[in-house]
Write a structure and sequence with these properties.
Layout lengths: L2 H21 L84 E5 L2 E4 L7 E3 L4 E10 L2 E4 L4 E12 L5 E5 L2 E10 L2 E4 L4 E10 L2 E4 L4 E5 L2 E3 L6 E3 L8 E5 L2 E4 L4 E2 L3 E5 L2 E4 L4 E2 L3 E5 L2 E11 L9 E5 L2 E10 L4 E5 L2 E4 L4 E4 L2 E5 L2 E4 L5 E15 L2 E2 L7 E12 L2 E3 L6 E4 L5 E5 L2 E3 L2 E2 L13 E4 L4 E5 L2 E3 L2 E2 L6 E4 L2 E5 L2 E3 L2 E2 L5 E3 L4 E5 L2 E3 L2 E2 L6 E3 L3 E9 L9 E3 L3 E8 L12 E3 L5 E3 L3 E8 L6 E3 L2
Length: 616
């Protein structure tokens, strides 16, 4: 036995005796060290008492993060104090009682100022709000009419597949402010009453109409309407107070009309498809990234009486179906980066103002664009527009019209690309456009068979052609590219090539028209009769012109019964570039012809003879 083993028991006994001495004081009171008070406030170190200690297994001790009395071992969502075993099950999309067997289906919860209340058994057939709050409906069918009272702000939200199938005509009647979310409504209507507000997301209306009364507004996202026998969205009442609607990512389908009578309408990334008119009687509309289609007319802007000064802006959108856009007097339309491609007329404007920019305008059967100024001047501006093949003409005008056509392509028309039948005061400006493969092969009355690219009848009106290209246009009669009678035609910087006609391979002009040309080029145009370039019964003047390789029976370049004046520089070809059989044919008594060649200065031909005389 060692000395250490002998000493240890003695030391333990000594220490024990010392402890006993401290535990009994002279006053007889207990000297036991007090225990820590479990209710004491934490000290100023901020220590909460959670030491992160682990049990003997090494796992952290269970904690109650949301303070609802249930820790992570039994609480199915320890981040919410309203979710724990035994909690009341509300309609909120949560498993409140942590029991998967408990369902929200067929339940209704009202979330008001005093907290949630189960109202499943008190809804009846008509529920009327009594204040602000949220009504949550569980999965199932609800044969109830929901009324949001005036001055109330109420949300009605569906959880699951919630269908409102009311025996009443109205499923939802909004008198104050309502938000509808994730609901399917099968009823005659949802009504947004006087000055009321509706906000809806993921709302479906089946066989019904969204009625908007005076002063009503609606903000609708992912709205789906599969309409009934009335319009899908329509104005109610006669008061002029404006109705405002914004639709985003929505789909409207109607066997009748689509959206009617909304004063301020915005369509974003939406589709409106109607058997009748898709958009009608809308005062202010913005259509952005949307599709409009109709078995009738897609858009009707204004009224025939001209008493609705409507305006519409369409961007990045598509119009399809039978008919396109009809615009009435006093209205304004702007179409940008869009496509109007329909079976019948793409655009009809009467005494209105319209602008088309960077868009496709096409019709498979008749004129894509028809403009009338018969009841007042019509203004139409077209820029960077592509017109596709059509069995008729691309643009048709009548009455007093102001037309600006720029940087566009018109090809494949079967009955003139442009038919400009103008009243006094009309103005037409065509710049930097391409007219290609347009034809007019008809014959008979109505000047059929004339002007493959442009037909112009404009007493008291003007036509300006600048920097355009006319190629491979043809007619069965006269004016392969241009036919003009009456009015004033001013041409500059244009190129005419490969056009063909009986008379006037490129141009056929009547004496009643006044024509001037500066810097125009005519190459390879053909007439089976007279004037490979132009046939005219009056005086002609060309400045800085090129006429080469044109062909006709008479007057390979020019045939006229009047005088021909060339100024500046001219090139009428020589050798391989010469016109066939000659440059100039004077069809006035002697029917003489001559060659001109090239030169500069001033040259006058046909002043009594076919001879051309230089003028000092």
């Amino acid at each position: 036995m060692t000395l250490r083993s002998l000493l240890l028991p003695s030391m333990v006994l000594a220490l024990s005796a010392c402890g006993d001495d401290k535990s009994s004081g002279d006053d007889g009171t207990s000297g036991t060290t007090p225990s820590v008070d479990d209710t004491a406030e934490p000290d100023d170190t901020g220590d909460s008492g959670d030491t992160g200690e682990t049990d003997d297994s090494g796992d952290p001790d269970p904690v109650d993060m949301d303070g609802d009395g249930y820790d992570t071992t039994s609480d199915c969502d320890d981040s919410r104090s309203d979710v724990h075993p035994g909690a009341t099950e509300w309609v909120d999309g949560l498993n409140n009682d942590c029991d998967e067997a408990t369902s929200e289906a067929g339940r209704a919860t009202w979330w008001g100022a005093d907290g949630p209340v189960d109202v499943t058994d008190t809804l009846g057939t008509e529920w009327v709000s009594e204040g602000d709050g949220r009504l949550a409906l569980g999965d199932g069918d609800w044969p109830v009419t929901f009324v949001v009272g005036a001055e109330h702000d109420v949300t009605i939200e569906g959880f699951g597949d919630v269908r409102i199938e009311t025996p009443d005509l109205r499923a939802v009647y909004v008198q104050g402010e309502a938000t509808l979310t994730n609901l399917t409504v099968e009823a005659y209507s949802i009504d947004v009453h006087l000055d009321a507000t509706l906000v809806a997301t993921d709302l479906t209306l089946v066989n019904g109409t969204l009625w908007m009364y005076q002063g009503a507004s609606a903000d609708l996202t992912r709205l789906t309407i599969d309409g009934g026998w009335l319009s899908a969205i329509t104005a109610g009442g006669m008061d002029p107070a404006p109705r405002t609607a914004v639709l985003r990512e929505s789909t409207i389908t109607s066997p009748s009309w689509g959206i009617v009578g909304i004063d301020d309408l915005t369509l974003e990334s939406s589709t409106v498809a109607a058997d009748g008119i898709a958009l009608a009687n809308v005062l202010h509309a913005v259509v952005d990234g949307s599709t409009l289609t109709s078995l009738s007319t897609a858009v009707s802007l204004g009224t025939s009486a001209g008493d609705l000064a409507a305006e519409m802006v369409m961007r990045d959108s598509i119009v399809t179906g039978y008919g396109g856009i009809t615009q009435y007097p006093g209205t304004t339309l702007e179409v940008v980066d869009s496509g109007v491609e329909v079976e019948r007329v793409a655009y009809t404007g009467t005494a209105a103002t319209a602008t088309f920019t960077r868009s496709m305008v096409a019709s498979t059967t008749v004129n894509p664009v028809s403009v009338s100024g018969s009841t007042g001047r019509a203004e139409l501006t077209i820029r960077e527009v592509v017109f596709g093949t059509v069995s008729s003409r691309h643009i048709n005008t009548s009455g007093e019209v102001g037309l600006v056509l720029e940087d566009s392509v018109l090809e494949g028309a079967a009955d003139n690309a442009l038919r400009l039948d103008a009243a006094v005061g009309s103005t037409f400006a065509v710049r930097r456009c391409t007219f290609r493969n347009n034809h007019n092969t008809g014959s008979g009355s109505g000047w059929r068979g004339y002007g493959g690219a442009v037909w112009f009848n404009g007493a008291g009106s003007t036509l300006v052609l600048e920097d355009n290209t006319f190629e491979d246009n043809s007619v069965s009669l006269d004016g392969g590219a241009l036919f003009a009678t009456d009015g004033t035609v001013t041409m500059s910087g244009n190129t005419f090539s490969g056009n063909a006609a009986r008379h006037g391979g490129a141009l056929y002009l009547l004496s009643s028209a006044t024509v001037s040309s500066s810097g125009d080029t005519f190459t390879g145009n053909v007439a089976s009769g007279s004037g490979g370039v132009v046939s005219y019964s009056g005086d002609l003047s060309f400045e800085d012109t090129v006429m080469t390789e044109n062909d006709a029976i008479y007057g390979g370049a020019v045939s006229t019964s009047g005088m021909l004046t060339l100024t500046g520089t001219w090139d009428l070809g020589e050798g391989s570039t010469d016109n066939t059989p000659d440059d100039y044919y004077w069809a006035n008594g002697s029917f003489e012809s001559t060659s001109i060649g090239s030169g500069s200065g001033t040259l006058v031909c046909g002043d009594g003879t076919a001879e051309c005389v230089a003028v000092p």
